[in-house]
Design a protein that fits this description.
With 183 residues, the protein is an all-alpha fold. Helix content is 69%, strand content 0%. The radius of gyration is 29 Å and the shape is elongated. The chain starts with a helix and ends with a helix.
């Protein structure tokens, strides 16, 4: 059975910086997105082992840092800041040097935000138009759309139904435009 140090490929006396660099290197090597289709599950298991090793070794470093901060030892740069507690995942994430994202992912997300923007534009038109139309029909002849028998509640209910129809109509309109224009 291999130790956490063996999994990351570092010696037992490695510094926190060496542990972080070894984790990044190993994570890139065995990440499931980098593996062939047949090896995805094996790559995911290895990636989880690498992540567990990193988290465990980082915890031991944090515990030493935290213990040193409580005892007044501020030799660590983070201990010097006076925070005598373990850093949260969010703090660790913010302090990371760089996050790499593949270009295909960025392009896909940008495309999705463009589609979302177009749907919102269409819905800004269709939702109010359908709500006003259904409420107008209800006000013209309340007996055609009789719901609860309470006039104000029925007006709100009809407006809500009209808004839902407007949302559906706007979404269909936007997706039809996306499909037809190839955006």
């Amino acid at each position: 059975m291999s130790t956490y140090h063996d999994i990351l490929g570092i010696n037992p006396g490695a510094s926190q910086e060496e542990i972080k660099h070894a984790f990044r290197r190993r994570a890139l090597e065995c990440h499931p997105d980098q593996a062939d289709e047949g090896n995805k599950e094996e790559a995911q298991r290895e990636f989880l082992r690498v992540r567990e090793a990193f988290e465990t070794l980082s915890e031991s470093e944090d515990e030493r840092w935290s213990r040193g901060a409580r005892n007044g030892d501020s030799s660590d740069e983070e201990g010097a800041s006076g925070r005598g507690r373990r850093r949260s995942f969010a703090e660790r994430w913010r302090s990371a040097e760089k996050v790499r994202v593949r270009k295909e992912v960025v392009d896909r997300v940008s495309g999705l935000s463009g589609e979302y923007r177009l749907i919102r534009e269409k819905n800004k038109i269709t939702i109010p138009a359908c709500a006003v139309l259904t409420v107008s029909v209800f006000l013209y002849d309340p007996l055609t759309m009789h719901g609860t028998g309470l006039f104000l509640f029925d007006v709100l209910l009809v407006g809500l139904v009209g808004s839902a129809c407007g949302f559906a109509l706007g979404s269909v309109w936007a997706y039809a435009e996306i499909f037809l224009t190839g955006r």
